[in-house]
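Suppose a colleague, Dr. K., hands you the sequence of a protein chain of 431 amino acids and asks what its three-dimensional shape might be. Before reaching for any lab equipment, you can write down a predicted structure in token form. Begin with the sequence itself:
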Amino acid sequence: MLPLLLAVWMLLATAATPALAQDAPVDADSTAAGEVEDADLVDEADDGLDPADDVDVVGMNEQLQVLQGEVDRLKKVKFTGYLQARYEVAEADADTVRVAGSPSTFTPANLERFYLRRARFKLTYDHAPWSQLVMTIDAGAERQVRMLDGYLALTEPRTPEPRHQLWIGQFNVPFGYEIERSSSLRELPERSRMENVLFPGERDRGIKAQSLWASRFETVVAVINGGGIGSVEFPTTDPTRGKDVLGRVRALFGTIDVGVSAYGGKALVPLTGPDVALDRTRFGAEAQGYYALPKFGGGSLRGEYWAGHSVNADSVNANVVRATAANPVLLLRPGANPNSLATDFAGYYVMWVQNVGEKFQVAARYDRYDPNVDVAHDQYARWNAAAHWFYQGLTRFTVAYEVPHTDRADGSGGYVDPSDNLWTFQFQQSF
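The predicted structure, expressed as tokens, is then:
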């Protein structure tokens, strides 16, 4: 798949080069005439000027040319970014860091806090129409500086807009709508649960070809490592020789957009002894509709549905003996089936957004994720609602409330939904 992508791109670029590289023809007759017409001026050598003045002028011109070149390069560089500062209040708050039932285990259980969710700085070098370099740095919630985006986008230059691009590096996984939508533009504080589980970190490393055909039809094909930068075991490497392949087709009709995505690859569960390689497949469908209400403004209704086969964290925990200080091995439990570590999943979300004048916006979403469709009481469901006030074009205040629903065994054969609703107050400044 990777050689095919490169071969197609080289054919496009080779066909484009002659069209741009051809210089304007030189009219030999007009050049000669110009030389004759200027001959009289050249003969006027005694103009009363000191020859040293001519040398100074030449030197100044050279300095101006160098300065102009530096200015032209700086014009191609753009710096953008944003900061999200939050205050959260959760029903699960407690003045303790000790997990109930596990005296030796500690965790930051108290979620009533101030913190930085995201602090991002983006550099874009746009060498139009040939290429673009993008680097994004984050220093937010994890309290460490890390690179999120780092890629080179080569543009097929025959079209006035970058309709055909080849990306190489680390970028958002082009699956569905929600992953690639910037966190600075999203109407709710976090993405859906299914996205958080299946694509942790949202980004991966590889190569992708993206094309926009006739302004209404978009296709994306990518070859990536597969684990993603949020993978616990393999955040920067790929343990399998084969790469994951995905594709997306999207139709743009102005007020309605629809798309489908498909993904296939291998996931590896590292064990002491033979590792377990399992199929990782995903299918997604998306739809969005846009409208406008008098005296209010624009609104949208969107949704996505994902399904497939992937490694299930709960199944791994139930069937693998985890490493400890005294027993540093990872082994399947006796009688466990390696194929049971991956399960069929399904998830979806439906979201509504409405502008209220120029300063306010409201949004609501319901999302649901079932990591194993064959098992009951492992589903995750959540209601989200948010209100935004745009203090100024680049400054936004957000108040959001989420109501998760999960089933937790109560010890008597039944299940209860724990109290874990969450208030989020967020300030965002962009530049």
